[in-house]
Design brief:
Length: about 90
């Protein structure tokens, strides 16, 4: 999987950094998202996918193959697991 972020859409809510701190952080000045790791490891992927799902602004896009069944066990529900992520807005 691969992650991209649209910092212009980011509201600075910080849900991503709380959910997947190894993948996302926030700019200390603007509060907007900082992408720490665009290609999360298999252990980071479930939290990164969940962060994309709960982001209130749809600023996080997930691309790549659908997750394995064990990746979904984090409770994200997989609703944002399609190859196009949340890009539809
Ligand atoms: S959860 Fe979304 S809106 Fe909030 S900081 Fe992360 S990318 Fe920005």
């Amino acid at each position: 999987m691969e992650i991209s972020v649209d910092r212009e859409r980011c509201l600075g809510a910080g849900m991503c950094a709380l959910t997947a701190p190894e993948v996302f952080d926030q700019d200390t000045e603007s509060g907007r998202v900082l992408l720490l790791n665009a290609v999360p490891s298999p252990t980071q992927a479930p939290a990164a996918r969940k962060a994309a799902y709960i982001c209130p602004s749809g600023a996080i896009t997930v691309t790549g193959p659908r997750p394995a069944a064990d990746e979904l066990s984090v409770g994200a529900g997989g609703a944002n697991s399609g190859p196009a992520g949340r890009s539809g807005g």
